[in-house]
Write a structure and sequence with these properties.
By secondary structure, the chain is α+β, with helices and mostly antiparallel strands. It has helices spanning 3-8, 40-53, 75-85, 112-126, 183-200, 211-218, 257-269, 293-302, 332-343, 400-414, 421-427, 430-438, and strands at residues 21-23, 26-31, 57-60, 66-71, 95-97, 135-139, 151-157, 164-170, 176-181, 236-240, 243-250, 254-256, 274-278, 282-286, 305-306, 316-318, 353-356, 368-375, 378-385, 393-395.
Amino acid sequence: MTAFATSALRRGACPSLSAPMQTGDGLLVRLRPAAPALTGEGLLVLAGLAREHGNGLIEITARGNLQLRGLTEASVPRLAEGLAAAGILPQTGVAIEIPPLSGIDPSEIADATPFADVLRKAIAAASLTLAPKLAIVVDGGGVLSMAEMVADIRLDALADGAGWRLSVGGDRRTARPVAVLPAERAIAGAMAVVAALATIGPAARGRDLDAAVLAAQFGTVPEPAFSEVLPSHPLGIHRIGDESLLGIAPAYGQVQADRLSALVQGLAACGASEFRLAPHRALLVRGLSGERLAAAQACADREGFWCTETAPGRFISICAGAAGCASARFDTHAAADAVVAVAGGLLDGSLDVHISGCPKGCAHPARAAVTLCGTAAGVGLILDGRASDAPAATLPAGDLKPAIQRIGTLLRARRMEGETAKSLIDRTAPAALISAYQGQQ
């Protein structure tokens, strides 16, 4: 077994240029550029490299990372060389996430960028063995804050220059508080938590920490009152100071290199100057003047990108599917399009829908209210479970679209005015959904 494959099979490993992950369509590399933004030229180079060295499928993850698919052992080093030649250097070490508009958003409480840089260097200098998927959020606030992003360790800026709240294991609302620290002590405080994780072991995550024990090291922990106002969703038009930004996302987080190139060229003609990766699988486009925003939105729509947070498909998680992965048993993208066409009005974000090409469930490892999963016997329907669970019913892939139509018809007929999709599914008997799926109504 190769070094690449061995590394990729380690549970909890995070794929990178040095340790790509073996998938059904070859090797996968995940990267986050170290620079806060990419130029149009940089994105065109990246698309060309994805096409030349992989299968051309590019993904933006829920946490705002890039994934390139269909690579080989021979092509990964050439990809790395091409990225370096273009000046696209990936972040290395522990993932430290900051708001995508840090440093340019006048509404932010603090610029998280320098804090994240210092913390990243401090962790590297400490040479600790930490969990590969350890996530740290440094949130300075602003229009697109990281309040909803779950992390093992959080530093959240407090209003009125009151310092930073250090917490563990959750988003801004659910993370357990450890300390409130002035700016000059925030990095040292975060490093104390990092050291505690290293002491537990190389797989330790924020959920494994005893927040009360940590808090005792810092003294009394006041519970700061955070605003309940949720951050804006990245999709759509944002007014940042005196400029307008456009947030777009490839449909289901996936785009072929040729379509990305066409998008970048079209947006450049509208004045786009830079692109910033953002959570929720988004790209933030800067440099668009007010009168060119409509043209930019039309360009994005033409190339299969979503421009509004109400796009119903954004509530569906899909993998590459049979079009891009040898492990997949059916076309997940076509299935997602069928769900949107039939039941788009039901997709309100109150529940998760997962469409997985195989039982590995790469796109959504957690439970979902409804999962369609490819198996050797056909496409299975799984209710309130994971892709790896036994299906409640299975149909040939060719019968999937009529089955989706039947379930959509059932749910639309049962839905009460103003009812959420979660409430509707919760009060619908599983037997009724299974019967509709199988065509036994």
